[in-house]
TrEMBL record:
<dbReference type="InterPro" id="IPR056411">
    <property type="entry name" value="CysS_C"/>
</dbReference>
<protein>
    <recommendedName>
        <fullName>Cysteine--tRNA ligase</fullName>
        <ecNumber>6.1.1.16</ecNumber>
    </recommendedName>
</protein>
<keyword id="KW-0862">Zinc</keyword>
<keyword id="KW-0030">Aminoacyl-tRNA synthetase</keyword>
<dbReference type="Pfam" id="PF01406">
    <property type="entry name" value="tRNA-synt_1e"/>
</dbReference>
<dbReference type="GO" id="GO:0008270">
    <property type="term" value="F:zinc ion binding"/>
</dbReference>
<dbReference type="InterPro" id="IPR015803">
    <property type="entry name" value="Cys-tRNA-ligase"/>
</dbReference>
<dbReference type="GO" id="GO:0005524">
    <property type="term" value="F:ATP binding"/>
</dbReference>
<feature type="binding site">
    <location>
        <position position="275"/>
    </location>
    <ligand>
        <name>ATP</name>
    </ligand>
</feature>
<comment type="subunit">
    <text>Monomer.</text>
</comment>
<keyword id="KW-0648">Protein biosynthesis</keyword>
<dbReference type="GO" id="GO:0005829">
    <property type="term" value="C:cytosol"/>
</dbReference>
<feature type="binding site">
    <location>
        <position position="215"/>
    </location>
    <ligand>
        <name>Zn(2+)</name>
    </ligand>
</feature>
<dbReference type="GO" id="GO:0004817">
    <property type="term" value="F:cysteine-tRNA ligase activity"/>
</dbReference>
<feature type="short sequence motif" description="'HIGH' region">
    <location>
        <begin position="30"/>
        <end position="40"/>
    </location>
</feature>
<feature type="binding site">
    <location>
        <position position="244"/>
    </location>
    <ligand>
        <name>Zn(2+)</name>
    </ligand>
</feature>
<comment type="similarity">
    <text>Belongs to the class-I aminoacyl-tRNA synthetase family.</text>
</comment>
Length: 474
């Protein structure tokens, strides 16, 4: 039984998809006007865990993530660089796909670009005009929030906080009052525009879509009028997701989405990481500092997605250390010979892994942590308890069964456990190690220590064991 916290009801609910074993999942993707910061990436990792958990629970998931390639920020950036919006956003789009690959975020079924769905947006706006949820002013089209009776239900904006008749033109507004928001913006100098043929107009209205309409148009294009899960970060609750509900339900009269999931922010010194605040790191920044991207993935899994998470380089280092310990453990297991012990018989049912009563309980604990609204910190604790128990008494366990169980967990965690291979030291390090041995045997300890330092600079540590010195990747 999978439970998820639904922002529509503000409760944990048992997940029941619209169609028996299929799930439609739509997540708000990047606005490609800059490199994603690791706050954005935290949200995409949470959504990846959601998708993987649904698959782990046996659902067939269709995931759609939009790419916002036209909005206020993109136009501003493109104009500043004297480029059109397509040339301007191309490299950021590429960087986004590189980042998510490095973070083991599984590819979505579709990544629709906003600029390739202008037609669908115009059709949707036309429907809203017809049903009088929308009205035209000076070549622009607005959504009339006073007509949509449940406006504000998702974000709990009360009726008295709605400014009836007031209008807002900008794509982003984090105000706590609701106003009529823009669906179609009349063309302005220096902005890209498309012709919209709305009924009752002799000529097309040249302009561009407001930001919110794209997610309604694209999600309904790929999933139909209603679908299962919509996710993003908490700042999208209002106005973006609120407006999406109004636009979609206003046009179709049907319930738009069953479950809204909103992830909490990544913070720096207690403040939201944001481009505008200038307190951000990109994945590239972390890599330049010597971090593995998966250390960041591990770091985000150590907190629940609905808790704020404060980012520091020290805590990232701690996450990297834990991940390396996990990889080392897996490597050791891989090197352990197969030894089926009594009680570790082959699985009773095909596809049911692992064998052995103890491990079945461990798998249940891991699964119930994840199925409890994606409790990844608890799931990681289950994994580490298993490792600690094994380390205390390896003879009690079958190494291969544990390895199989860790691979099974990694279907959700995505920490690359199957792919870990022993890293071979480079020739330079090996030859330094030989020189150090010669120096040590000759009693030249100062030289031996100097060489040890050089080896360390190359990222390796020398550990002297009774039989021979060993190299450890630092
Ligand atoms: P954007 O590229 O600005 O459209 O943002 C992409 C996604 O990242 C959206 O779901 C945002 O809500 C989310 N986001 C922005 N800042 C943060 C943050 N500090 N922590 C987590 N998610 C964030
Ligand atoms: Zn969206």
């Amino acid at each position: 039984m999978l439970t998820l916290y639904n922002f529509l009801t503000r409760k944990k609910e048992i997940f029941k998809p619209i169609y028996r074993n299929k799930v439609g999942l739509y997540t708000c993707g990047p606005t490609v006007y800059n490199y994603a910061h690791i706050g954005n990436l935290r949200t995409y990792i949470f959504e990846d865990i959601l998708r993987r958990t649904l698959e782990y629970a046996g659902y067939k998931v269709k995931h759609v993530m939009n790419i916002t390639d036209v909005d206020d920020k993109i136009i501003k950036g493109a104009n500043a660089e004297n480029k059109n919006i397509y040339d301007f956003s191309e490299s950021y789009k590429k960087a986004f796909f590189n980042d998510i690959k490095k973070l083991h975020i599984l590819p979505a079924w579709k990544y629709p670009d906003a600029t390739k769905h202008i037609k669908e947006m115009i059709t949707l706006i036309q429907k809203l005009l017809k049903s009088r949820f929308a009205y035209k002013v000076g070549g622009s089209v607005y959504f009339d929030i006073s007509k949509f009776k449940s406006y504000g239900n998702l974000s709990r904006l009360k009726k008295r906080e709605l400014k009836i008749g007031a209008r807002v033109d900008t794509d982003e507004y984090a105000k706590n009052t609701g106003e009529d928001f823009v669906l179609w913006k009349a063309v302005r100098a220096g902005e890209p525009s498309w012709p919209a043929r709305f009924a009752g107009e002799a000529r097309p209205l040249w302009g561009r879509p407001g930001w919110h309409i794209e997610c309604s148009a694209m999600s309904m294009k790929y999933f139909g009028k209603s679908f299962d899960i919509h996710a993003g970060a908490i700042d999208l609750l209002f106005p973006h997701h609120e407006n999406e509900i109004a636009q979609s339900e206003g046009a179709t009269g049907k319930k738009f989405v069953k479950y809204f999931l909103e992830g909490e922010h990544l913070l720096v010194n207690g403040k939201r990481m944001a481009k505008s605040a200038g307190n951000f790191f990109t994945l590239r920044d972390l890599e330049k500092k010597g971090f593995n991207p998966l250390a960041f993935r591990y770091f985000t899994l150590s907190a629940h997605y609905r808790s704020q998470l404060n980012f520091t380089l020290e805590s990232l280092k701690a996450a990297q250390n834990s991940l390396e310990r996990l990889w080392e453990f897996v490597l050791n297991l891989k090197a352990t010979p197969l030894s089926l012990k009594p009680g570790f018989k082959s699985p009773k049912k095909p596809g049911f892994f692992p064998s052995g009563a103890v491990l079945i309980k461990v798998r249940e604990a891991f699964q119930s942590a994840l199925f409890d609204d994606l409790n990844t910190p608890k799931a990681l604790a289950v994994l580490w308890n298993l490792i600690n128990d094994y380390n205390k008494n390896p003879k009690k366990f079958d190494a291969r069964a544990i390895l199989g169980l860790l691979y099974d967990f990694d279907k959700v965690l995505g920490l690359g456990l199957r792919a870990v291979r022993p890293v071979r030291p480079p020739k330079e390090v090996l030859s330094l190690l030989k020189k150090r041995e010669i120096a040590r045997k000759a009693g030249n300890f100062a030289i031996a220590d100097e060489i040890r330092r050089k080896i360390k600079q190359l990222g390796w540590q020398v550990k002297d064991t009774p039989s021979r010195p060993e190299l450890i990747h630092a």
